[in-house]
Amino acid sequence: MAGFLIKRLLQAIFVVIAITLVVSFAIRLTGDPALMMFQGGGGSMTEEDLARIRAALGTDQPFLVQYWHFLTGMLTLDFGRSFTGGTSVSLLIGDAVPATLLLAFISMLVSIALSIPLGIKAATARGKVADQIIRILSLVGLSFPNFWLATMLVLLFGITLGWLPPSGMSGMASYVMPAVTMGIILTATNVRLVRTAMLETLQSQYIMVARAKGLSESKVLYKHALRNCAIPLITYFGLQFGGLLGGIVVIERVFNWPGLGTLAFDAVASRDYPVLQAVITVLSLMIVGINLLVDIAYGLVDPRIRTE
Amino acid sequence: MTTFKRGLTATFMALALSATAFTAAPAFAAGKMTISTPQDPGSWDPIDTFLVQWSAVATNIFDGLTYRGPDLKIVPGLAESWEELDGGKRLRFHLRQNVKFHDGEPFNAAAVKYTFDRLLGEQGAKGPQRSNYTSIDSVEVIDDNTVDMKLKAPDPVLLTKLAGYGGMIVPPKYIQEKGEDNFNLNPVGTGPFKFVSYQPKVNIKLEANADYWGGAPKLSELEYRFIAEPSTAVAELQAGRVDLVIPPTIPIGMIPVIKGDPKLAVVSVPGPTVDALRFNTRDGITADPKVRKAIIMAVDRDTIVKSILAGEASPIVSFQSALSFGYDPNLKGLPFDPAGAKKLLAEAGVKPGTTLQIDIRGSDATMNEVAQVISSYLSMVGLTATIKPYETNVITNDIIPQGKTGAMFQQKWGGWTFDYDNTAYAMYHSGEKWNPYDKDEKMDKLLESQRPLTDRAQREKILQEVGAYASERALELPLYNSNAIFGISKRVKGFVAAPDNRLKLNEVSVD
């Protein structure tokens, strides 16, 4: 287990360095943050003014020197200061990480809570009306662009009915619409996955044995069948969580959610290098971490993997 | 199994509950107003930023020595009066007495000196605002209520600049004791509202300053929420959770949504922002002034403003708003004349079917449509235009300064000072960052000659000359001056839209 963890940790470090190197380099190719500061109001800036700002931001240094500062800073959890306003990046990240993680987690829960019973129902009612309806709904769900679904929900529940806040993160109620939007989009795929996995498992001989023993149908389905098809499902849900963190940018923007997506969006728009680098680092660490958790979860669900 | 089922039920219950139990109807505390602003400036320190979204909030926290309201007239602020001495090289300010900062420390001559020493010193060097105040040589305390500002050279725009941004007076003791970092996030000023809390990317909350020198504000609380997405901001407005959406948020296409809601209204005023398609005057066919003139004559700008901008803009003939100092109402641009345009093109030897590229900001929905229309106007005189959209910062801070544009490129500009010098110098003076192509000695001399003049009439005359000369040389295809569009709830009373978005809300109340 220790060897496994060390290997994963080294992998994580490599991934973070590779990703941040590419992102930090690419963002510096487009536009000068010092020049941006003078746009509109400050037509009267001189070359000296620009040099002064570049020195204050540290963008006058060669790229590799800037990158080295970023790497060494990261070791002490110091991500530097935002170019817009000079706020400590750690402070911004510290606020954004829980907001994004919580939303992603609740969306996953919504999706799991919907897709498992629906998927099982579709599998057991294979070819019947219930199966057809679930499959059509899933297709519809897959075809929705998520921002469109979000807008429709906001129109209905936020404006017409006035039940839920249209945006922002303020208490339990504000989680409902973003989480349901994400949840529905995820469920559309997950239902099909659960259905397929269940169909395969239900044809196994041990299910026949379980039925022959006279176990109740729910016991057969949930204890024997579901547990046996849990491995591919966990793998998929885990990987999906990683993708979810990427896809959350759009949802965060529509719902004005103060998470990593909003932070990344603003940082790209204003060429805020330190913030962008930090967001990318945190996101890649999270995704590596989730993959690790998925591996550990295998062992918990399936004793055969634990003993190997 | 049962636990699983119970878990499921609980999940559904929780979802259902949260959907019903928190259906709180929008409840406002008495006298609380909520405003949606598209950007979080990240710091509330006056020396850190040029963002108009900073000013939209900070105008309520800080005061300058002078004040400029929605009517754009310079009136006393923290200085009750001032006089010019030494031929405009010294300004003497008589300060308002018995004014206190929100933390209780007194406002006096020492605070004024501290503010400008800080702006022009080491701390100010880290921010962009200093470049606007470099005409100030030093500030001298004459007595507790009198300060002198010694200038390196007369600066005719200084009194305007003292009404905002870097000229806002800050509390010396508070900053020295609590530090600069604290001040960025916990601003203290003398303004009508006191800072309460700031959550980056979420909101900033203010409360009334009952001791405000201009009288206690009518509202008890102000909350600014940072909402970037226009549809989200409008949804919040419709849901009654936001009372005012400030520009630049609402696109022209969304105006009917707001007008269709009986609880809401749209307020729009001409703002400082102007759009033009500038020419590459150095290379290609647009190096020839005849071609540039032909292009200007080929485009019917009045129709564009009426049909695409739904009247929420005014056509311009020079690159400035009608509110700008240096605007000349008598300046006539080139008329819409496709036949004349064709003739000019033929004279210049431009063959029908010649191509040219128009670079625009891809995220500017209005300009995307406008550019399409311009392209079809140009095709009518035999020019084939291709439109190349760029991300805003790429075009403004890379493509234009590096001189890598097509024959025409969009420039959006507008300084809060409403002084044509701010635009004209940056666009036309040779060697300036945003003027990659043009070099013209006459233009340079005109621009330089007006800078030190304190005689307003004389300076205005030269600025008008600059505008006329730019028009004569056809340096750009002037398009329009966009309105600043506000979406507002009808529960708000006494709101006056400020063209520059610097909204002081002490006279505003809510039902």
TrEMBL record, chain A:
Pfam families: BPD_transp_1 (PF00528), BPD_transp_1_N (PF19300). InterPro entries: BPD_transp_1_N, MetI-like, MetI-like_sf. The chain crosses the membrane at residues 12-31, 96-116, 136-163, 175-194, 233-255, 275-301. It is a multi-pass membrane protein. One of its GO terms (biological process) is transmembrane transport. Keywords: Cell membrane, Membrane, Transmembrane, Transmembrane helix, Transport. Residues 97-294 form the ABC transmembrane type-1 domain. GO terms for cellular component: plasma membrane. It is found in: Cell membrane. Belongs to the binding-protein-dependent transport system permease family. This is Peptide/nickel transport system permease protein. It comes from Neorhizobium alkalisoli.
Automatic annotation (TrEMBL), chain B:
Transmembrane segments: none annotated. GO terms for biological process: peptide transport. InterPro entries: Peptide/Ni-bd, SBP_5, SBP_5_dom. One of its GO terms (molecular function) is peptide transmembrane transporter activity. It comes from the Bacteria. CDD domains: PBP2_NikA_DppA_OppA_like. Residues 73-433 form the Solute-binding protein family domain. It is found in: Periplasm. Pfam families: SBP_bac_5 (PF00496). One of its GO terms (cellular component) is ATP-binding cassette (ABC) transporter complex. Keywords: Signal. Residues 1-29 form the signal peptide. Belongs to the bacterial solute-binding protein 5 family. This is Peptide/nickel transport system substrate-binding protein. It comes from Neorhizobium alkalisoli.
